[in-house]
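Schema walk-through. Below, the input block comes first and the output block second. Nothing else is stored per chain. Lengths vary across the set, and this one has 665 residues.
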Amino acid sequence: MFLRRAACGLLLPALVVLLSALPAPAQKSKAPDCLQCHQDAGMEKHVDPRVFQESVHGVLSCTDCHTDVTAFPHEPAPAKVDCGTCHADARQAFEAGIHARAAKTGNGKTPTCVACHGDPHAIKPSSDPASPTAHANVPQTCGKCHSDRFVVESGGISTRPFFSYQESVHGRAVAAGQEKAAVCTDCHRAHDILTAADPKSPIFKFNVPQTCGQCHKDVSHQFMASIHGQAIQRGNSQAPVCTDCHGIHLIKAHIDPTSSVASQALARTTCAKCHEGMRLSEEFGVPGRRITTYLDSYHGLASRLGSGVVANCASCHGVHNILPSSDPRSTISKENLVHTCGQCHPGASQNFAAGKVHLDVPVSRDMGSLGTLWVRRFYIVLIAFTLGGMVLHNAILWRCQALAHRARRPRPIVRMDLNQRIQHWLLLSSFFVLAATGFALKYPDSWLAWLLGSDETIRRLGHRVAAVVMLLLGVYHVGYMSLTRQGRQGLRDFLPRRKDVYDLIANLRYHLGRSPEKPRFARFGYAEKAEYLAVVWGTVLMGLTGLMMWFEVEVVRLVPRWSIDIATAVHFYEAILAVSAIFVWHFYQVIFDPSVYPLNWAFWDGRVSEEHYREHHALAYEAMTAHSQSEPEPPAATEPDADKKPAPSSDREPAPDGKPPPKTS
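--- output ---
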C-alpha cells in the first residue's frame, strides 16, 4: 500500500511535466476577447458590444462566422463572411433570384444580405419592429433601391412601382399600422425573387390568383370557379387575372373614383380592354362591342352623366364570380335574371328581365334584336332622305329670296373691286379646304374624313396644295398692299386707332340701351379691322408652323426636336381658333346680322347699297357724298340721244370704295 502511494506520488508530477511540454490546442475565440479591440470606435471594423449581444448573432462567437481568424493579429485581413454557411436554404433561394443573377453579370449595385438585413453585428429578427425586415418596414427596405435612380440606370427597372405601392390600399394600410396588409415579400417572396416571365414566380400570370389568395382566400376561390378562372386553369393567357383588373402596385379600393374597378371605370376602361374589341370574338367567339352597346343604353348614358348608383358591368355579371349565361349559377342566367334585375328594380317580372342591355348588336335571333336592327336601318334611310329633301327645299327657297332681295335694293357703291374679290375668293376657298383636310387628318375616324373618301393621300395632298395657295396669296397681298394705290389706301384705313376703342364701347352702350347715340364708323370699323389683323396673324402663324411640320427633317437640323412638337400644338389650336372665329364673328357680319340678312353680296360683285353704306359706314358715306357734290356738273350731252334718261343707279359702274359713283350724262 505504501509502495503504491509512493509510485503515484512519483508518476503524477512526471505526467504534469509531460503534458505541459505538449503544444496547447487551438481555442475558439470568444466575443469578449475580440471586442477588446473592436469595440474601439476608432477602428474601421467597429462593433458595439451591447448591440451585438442583443442581435440574433449574439449567441455566437466571432470565429463562427470569421472562420479564417485563428490568431491575433490576423494578417492578412479576414475574408468576407459567407452567410450561406449557416443559412444554406436562404442562400440557395437567393442564388435562384434576379438579384443574384444581376450580380453575376457584373452589376455591383445589386443587393446582398447586408443590404436588406442590415449590419451583421446588429441584425434583429423579423419579429422585432426595429428590424429592416420587419413586416411594416419591408416596403421602405426595398424602397432604398427601388426608389433610387440607379435602379433605372443599372437595371432598366422603373421606380414607379414603389411610389405606386405607397398610394395603394396595401401601402396605406401598412402605413396605418395594419400588420396583415401585403408588403413586397408577400407577393415577390423574400430571397428567391423572380421576374413575372418566370413560371416559378409568384407574380407569373397563371400564379397570380394563388398569390393574391394567400390573403384573399374567399375571393380567390370565387375567381377560380368563374369563367375567367376556368380559362386561366386551361392555360388561356388572354383571360384576366387579379392584376389585370385591379392593377399591380397601384391597387385602390372600388369606392375610390380613381380606381380601375370604380363604378364608372369598369365599363369605360377595365372591362373594355377585352370586351370591346374583336380579338375575343375572333379567337373564342365572345361577342365584341359589349361596352359600346352598354354605353348606348340607359344604364351607360346615366353612368356617363355621373350617376353613382346606375348598374354597371359588375352589377349584372358579378364581380369575381362571373359565369356565362348558360351556367345555372350565373347571375345573368334565365333562372336568376329576375333576382338580378330586382336588386335595382323591385318588383321586376320575368317579362321585364327579358329585355336586353346590349341591344344594338343582335347577338341572337330573338325578335327584339332583329326588330331593332331593321328599325335602325329603315330610319337611317328615312332620316337621310327626309333631311336631305328639307335641306334641298330650303336651299332653293333661300337662293330665290336672296336674289330677289338683291334685285329690290340697288347697290351702286363698290365695296370691293375685282382684284380684291379674287383675293377674297382664293382666301375663302383655301381656308375651307385647309380646315376640312386638316381636321380630317387629325380625326381620321370622323364623318368629315369619310366625306373626303377616308383616303390619307387625298387629305394630305389637298391640305398642302391649299396651304401653298394661301401662302402665295399672302405674298401677293403684301405686294398689293404696299405697291398699289388702292392697297396703300386700304392699309391706312385698316390701321388701328384710338377711336376704335371708343367706338367699341359706344357701340355696346348703344345696343345695350345705355346710350341713345349710335357710333359712326369710317370705311372700316373696329370689327373689320380686328378681323383683318387676325387673318394676317393667323396666316403668318399657320404658315410658319405648317412649314415646320411639312419639312420636319430639314427643320430639326437647325432647331431642337421639341420645337416641332410645340409647332404642331400651336398649329392645331390656332386652327380651332380660326375656324371658330369665322363661324362666330365673320358669318354674323355677312349673313346673320339682321341688317344684311340673308346675305351681304359684296363678296360676289363687290357692291353694297347706299342705305347699307350710310348705316354701317356713316363717316365714309358723308365724305363720299361731300366729294361728289363738290365736283362740277359735266356739260350737257350733244349726241342725238341726249334726251334719253340716265341708266338706273344699279346699272352704273361705280368707283372703288370710298369714292362717289361716276355720274352719267
